């Protein structure tokens, strides 16, 4: 029987998952299973909450992970919530420290490594041995668009974090190719499949030749006809939804007062972009930044906008607003409209968001993603009508307008939906079983 001393990790921007070899007596050789990371859940939010109070242990300040981290934040526990940690890879932030409360600072690298350590422990608790040291990690086609040096640095940082938590043998596989391996299990003939893996941080496409006669091959390089991607996905959608709805009520794109002989100027927008970007939100709470923005009251034609902005900054409401933008995006993803309650900023304040408004806010992002799909097929020297199937995976493919726009670009292809949150992890597990099984 194959040794269970390996795992495969889909470390996602929004959610993560782990696959390990199946231990079921009737499981066929080389089969894997997903680990239950939380009760009844095969995925776990990529989130860490650092408590402001509590003693350090060997792993640093006290923390909660996944849904427990989100719950601590929602319940108003004093501390710092970290999400979208994958977005930090390839940036200078990875080696910097940030305040997590109680006068304590933690390096972003250590946050990321701590989350991977938690996943490794989950795999061990689910049946993997204590000496678990081999892993296949998923990676996007591009961590960073059109900057090879930063892209290589991003993978190197993720590999270093994996080594730091106990993995001595680390391999990578592109996430959309892993999803193609998952799709391959259900096809009965050879097909050209364009995998659209639209997650929280990146939108990746791979054109892959799949088929039952190819499944057992370890080296699939000649079956990968093209891969391409852009660093645009769910967190970008959240940011643009927040800018187009919530932050308009705080003054984004509003005008200042008219002055004699001068047209009214738009208020400075930098603060709003930072408020709508998860890993930058905490930077707007510094005393210097707050004092600077407090002194900009005269820049606003509508004093109410400035008052609301200051409430958000002084009460540290930025993460809550970002979360409400994400909830609103999900609420309109299948059509219809929703209302966003902003009573925490000002009593009775609400803002409406409809699908058409969301479409307008996301149109540019969606078009760039669709174009990335077209470019992938073009790189392979093929036409759109030669694609047999579109395989959708990743949380953001639940956005109807996005999936429909991608499908419209490939009208001859059969649209197939995988598990939005688990297809990549399942495919990574299949790849790991072939890779490490062949190495025995």
Core attributes:
single chain, 440 residues, 5-stranded mixed beta sheet, 21% strand, globular
What does this structure look like?
- The strands form 5 sheets. Strands 1, 2, 3, 4, 10 and 11 form a 6-stranded mixed sheet that branches. This protein has a 5-stranded mixed sheet with strand order 14-13-12-17-18, sandwiched between helices. A 3-stranded antiparallel sheet has the order 6-5-7, with helices on both faces.
- The protein has helices at residues 66-74, 108-125, 148-164, 175-184, 234-244, 270-275, 287-294, 303-314, 318-332, 355-379, 400-409, 423-439, and strands spanning 6-11, 15-21, 32-34, 44-45, 47-51, 63-65, 79-83, 97-101, 104-107, 134-139, 169-174, 191-198, 203-210, 224-230, 337-341, 350-354, 389-393, 414-417.
- The relative contact order is 0.14.
- The chain is an alpha+beta fold.
- β1 (6-11) and β2 form a beta hairpin.
- It contains 12 helices and 18 strands.
- Helix content is 36%, strand content 21%.
- α4 (175-184) packs across α12 (423-439).
- The mean pLDDT is 90.
């Amino acid at each position: 029987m194959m040794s269970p001393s390996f795992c495969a990790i889909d470390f996602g921007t929004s959610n993560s998952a782990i696959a390990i070899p199946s231990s079921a007596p009737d499981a066929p050789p080389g089969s894997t299973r997903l680990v239950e990371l939380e009760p009844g859940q095969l995925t776990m939010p990529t989130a860490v909450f650092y408590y402001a109070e509590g003693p350090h242990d060997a792993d640093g300040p006290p923390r909660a992970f996944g849904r427990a981290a989100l719950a601590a934040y929602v319940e108003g526990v004093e501390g710092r919530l970290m999400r979208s940690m994958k977005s930090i890879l390839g940036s200078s932030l990875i080696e910097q420290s940030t305040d997590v409360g109680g006068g304590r600072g933690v390096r972003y690298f250590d946050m990321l490594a701590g989350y991977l350590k938690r996943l490794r422990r989950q795999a061990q608790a689910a049946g993997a041995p204590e000496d678990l040291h081999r892993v296949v990690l998923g990676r996007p086609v591009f961590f960073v668009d059109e900057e090879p040096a930063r892209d290589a640095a991003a993978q190197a940082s993720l590999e270093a974090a994996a080594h730091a938590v106990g993995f001595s043998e680390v391999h990578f596989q592109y996430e959309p190719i892993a999803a193609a391996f998952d799709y391959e299990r259900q096809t009965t003939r050879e097909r050209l499949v364009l995998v659209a893996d639209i997650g929280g941080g990146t939108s990746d496409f791979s054109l892959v030749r799949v088929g039952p006669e190819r499944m057992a091959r370890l080296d699939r390089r000649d079956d990968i006809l093209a891969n391409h991607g852009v660093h645009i996905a769910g967190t970008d959608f959240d940011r643009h939804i927040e800018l187009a709805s919530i932050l308009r009520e705080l003054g984004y794109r509003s005008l200042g007062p008219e002055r004699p002989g001068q047209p009214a100027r738009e208020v400075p927008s930098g603060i709003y972009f930072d408020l709508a970007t998860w890993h930058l939100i905490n930077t707007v709470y510094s005393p210097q930044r707050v004092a600077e923005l407090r002194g900009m009251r005269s820049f606003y034609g509508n004093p109410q906008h400035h008052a609301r902005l200051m409430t958000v900054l002084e009460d540290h409401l930025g993460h809550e607003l970002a979360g409400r933008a994400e909830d609103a995006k999900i609420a309109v993803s299948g059509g219809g409209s929703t209302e966003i309650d902003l009573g925490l900023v000002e009593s009775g304040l609400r803002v409406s968001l409809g699908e058409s408004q969301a479409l307008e806010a996301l149109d540019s992002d969606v078009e760039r993603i669709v174009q990335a799909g077209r470019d992938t097929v073009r790189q392979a020297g093929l036409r759109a009508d030669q694609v047999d199937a579109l395989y959708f995976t990743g949380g953001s493919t639940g956005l109807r307008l996005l999936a429909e726009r991608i499908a419209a670009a490939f009208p001859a292809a059969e649209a197939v939906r995988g598990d939005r949150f688990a297809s990549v992890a399942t495919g990574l597990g299949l790849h790991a079983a072939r890779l490490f099984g062949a190495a025995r």
